[in-house]
Amino acid sequence: MLLPIFEDIPLADLNTLRLPARAERYAEIHSPEQLIKLIERGDLATQRVFILGGGSNIVLKGDLNAFVLHMRIPGHMLATELDDAWIVRAGAGENWHEFVRWTLDQGWGGLENLSLIPGTVGAAPIQNIGAYGVELADRFFALEAVDLRSGRIISFDKDACQFAYRDSLFKQQGAAGRFVITAVSFRLPKDWQPVTSYADVASYLEQNGIDAPTPRDISDAVIAIRSRKLPDPAKLPNAGSFFKNPVVTQAQFDALVRDWPQLANNPQPDGTVKLSAGWLIERAGWKGRNLGPVGMYEKQALVLVNHGDGKGEDVLRLAAEVTAAVEGMFGVRLEQEPVLV
User: Which residues are the active-site ones (predicted)?
Assistant: First the structure.
């Protein structure tokens, strides 16, 4: 059976900022074999290819003169059990949060700090998602991806993925757009230890009288915290954290903290200091402030929201204004987290 290919498909309902755009061609991919068949037939050779996951980390500037491949590959399973860990595998189209909760239902801890992050399993390694003291790279085992040039399935281990802060090989020139992730495997330790270093998580546990938290306790804490701070994209369109937390040298931090003693920060193992982008944006006067139909969320300055009829150009204008305000006040330049398409 031939894979259905559609033309001139609206994408507003397929991105969490609900920005209007249309795809010249569109197909849903439910298996690696479907993707390989498209390559073999030459369907992907004549125009740009764009890979769409949950649409939670993109800013659509406008219509896409591209073949949009919507990754819908399902499934999750215990791939193997080691002496010290469970190796769990999931299809690229699986909803990330639902997958995390499934692992917890099986009694396998490790991903709980990453609860309620929007998007799909296949998109998670690209961004090296992270929250509350844990990054995907900390639990990553391997992934499989189809090479759009050769049509072959290639396996990548952790080193090959070149993970960094909100970054990976798959965002770099030469690899971005070439490899389509079809499945991801995670290493979940049997000797599980809770990560409660973030104040919000520790405070939640203390307030609820939880002295010895389980993985599900941590997940529940993260869900409660995120639900309190972040808007539900289904009710108020957004792409989650819009800017990366900037990383500065110790010397830069020392200079900043002289003028801003309350500057929120997180020292890094390499001697640099990670700053809170939300704190910087709020002090620059943009928390809860709108620019046309878009604005920075009133409860969390790091989140850019669409109040109803915003377009890609509105988002980019606001992002530029916020970036300029923060740089003018602190001398720190913010970097946008969602991918501009």
Answer: 166, 241 (proton donor), 337
Question: Which of 96, 135, 162, 136 shows the shortest CA–CA distance to 268?
Answer: 135
Q: Is the separation of the CB atoms in 134 and 189 below 8 Å? A: no
Pairing of strands 290-291, 273-275: unpaired
Q: Which of 308, 340, 278, 320 is nearest to 57 (CA)?
A: 340
Domains of the chain, first to last: 6-71 (3.30.43.10), 76-189 (3.30.465.10), 238-340 (3.90.78.10)
Residue 31 annotated to the active site: no
Q: Rounded distance, CA 83 to CA 73, Å? A: 29
pLDDT band at 2 (very low <50, low <70, confident <90, very high): low
- Active-site residue, selected from the candidate residues 166, 168, 185, 282: 166
- Record the pTM: 0.89
Q: Locate 198 and state its tokens.
A: 């973030």
For residue 69, with 0-12 CB atoms within 10 Å meaning exposed, 13-18 middle and 19 or more buried, which class applies? buried
Q: What string of DSSP letters covers 65-93?
A: EEEEEEE----EEEEEE-SSEEEEEEETT
Residue 289 annotated to the active site: no
Give CA–CA dist 90/36, Å, rounded.
19
What is the identity of the amino acid at 233?
A: P
Concerning whether 241 is annotated as a catalytic residue, the answer is yes
Rounded-to-integer distance, Cα 273 and Cα 270, Å: 9
Instruction: Encode pLDDT of 34-86 as tens digits.
Output: 999 999 988 888 889 999 999 988 999 999 999 999 999 999 999 999 999 99
CA atoms within 13 A on the CB side of 152: 4
Quickly tell me which residue has 């050769």 as its tokens.
Answer: 150
